[in-house]
């Protein structure tokens, strides 16, 4: 019987049908979705921290309003993705427990510090730019709730990317000091942004199965190449230089060749030894602990409302 269920499932995937939470699915399909989707949700929530750091120091009211809205969107994306993941049978408490204990990962990129205002430009331009490329592909993913979440999230991400590019553009057109700030931010965020797409395909243990199940629609290297090809002309347009001496247009492949990523640095950051890993986890754990009374009060309130309805 399992055999025929599995065959039917594979046939549905082959027909590009969406798999919905109550449909039969192989246990490994469920597990790998919980892994990727919960890590995606954690990345959105931890991703609020580097930029949150700049809300009170944004250089104008207009910048402050935009940044506040962006960070708020990220919180919304995280909650949306947690809800989508819950449909696979894991609770939100379990997901937080996995994050706080270090069992679940979140994107390496958020373990780097945002040290100047130009970093807020670089995060929007490069980090959201990379996120969109990854997430546009995920709009066609096979699990219905994840695909639908991505469609909505991508719309907001494109506003995030544009606000970041505009910050960088203004700095690049500003005084020599401002232009130097924009270049310095690009220098520091470029390589970590390329790392967001994960290990090379031949060193990515999850890619082959995830491509078969159409969880992933493009591989890590395909998406990384797309990001480089899209971003280099954007840097050129505003007079900034990509910090890669090996970057070169390849006429034959109609794309850029680029230098080797520092994979030691990538794995160090993924394993918890990046510049801000400890600080980020401390912020999340203390938010969870300090918020306990709010969660308790909300539960008691909900119970009281329920009692009122019954009586
Ligand atoms: N950081 O076999 P693969 C955002 C792990 S955007 C940390 O290739 P997979 C928006 C990977 O989990 C960022 N860990 O894995 C925003 C696996 O470990 P595991 C979030 C990484 O899953 C913008 C191991 O390495 N976006 O938040 C990373 O097939 C601005 C082997 O790797 C998403 O999560 C990494 N960079 O491919 C917010 C997108 N790369 O789980 C605020 C959805 C790999 O077996 C401000 N996720 N690892 O223990 C994906 O597309 C995939 O999960 C990949 C990794 C591509 C990230």
Short description:
By secondary structure, the chain is an all-alpha fold. The protein is built from 13 helices and two strands. A two-stranded antiparallel sheet has the order 1-2.
Question: Would you give an account of this structure?
Answer:
The structure is a single chain. It is built from 13 helices and 2 strands, in the order ααααααααααββααα. The chain has 311 residues and is mostly helical. It starts with a helix and ends with a helix. Strand 1 and strand 2 (255-257) form a beta hairpin. A two-stranded antiparallel ribbon has the order 1-2. The mean pLDDT is 97.
Keywords:
13 helices, two-stranded antiparallel ribbon, 311 residues, binds Phenylacetyl coenzyme A, mainly alpha, 68% helix
Round the mean pLDDT to the nearest integer and report it: 97
List the ligand species: Phenylacetyl coenzyme A
Strand order in the largest sheet: 1-2
| Spatial extent as radius of gyration | 21 Å
The 3D shape can be described as globular
* Major β-sheet profile: 2 strands, antiparallel
Number of helices: 13
Low-confidence stretches are none
The SSE string, one letter per element, is HHHHHHHHHHEEHHH
Q: Fraction of residues in helices?
A: 55-70%
What are the SSEs and their pairings?
Elements: H1 2-14, H2 27-46, H3 48-52, H4 61-86, H5 92-101, H6 117-138, H7 144-172, H8 176-195, H9 207-212, H10 220-237, E1 248-250, E2 255-257, H11 263-273, H12 277-290, H13 292-310
Antiparallel strand pairs: 1-2
The structure holds Phenylacetyl coenzyme A.
Residues 35-36, 39-40, 43-44, 47, 74, 105, 107-108, 123, 127-128, 131, 134, 195-199, 204-207, 210, 220, 270 line the site of Phenylacetyl coenzyme A.
EC number: 1.14.13.149
Keywords: Oxidoreductase
Pfam families: PaaA_PaaC (PF05138)
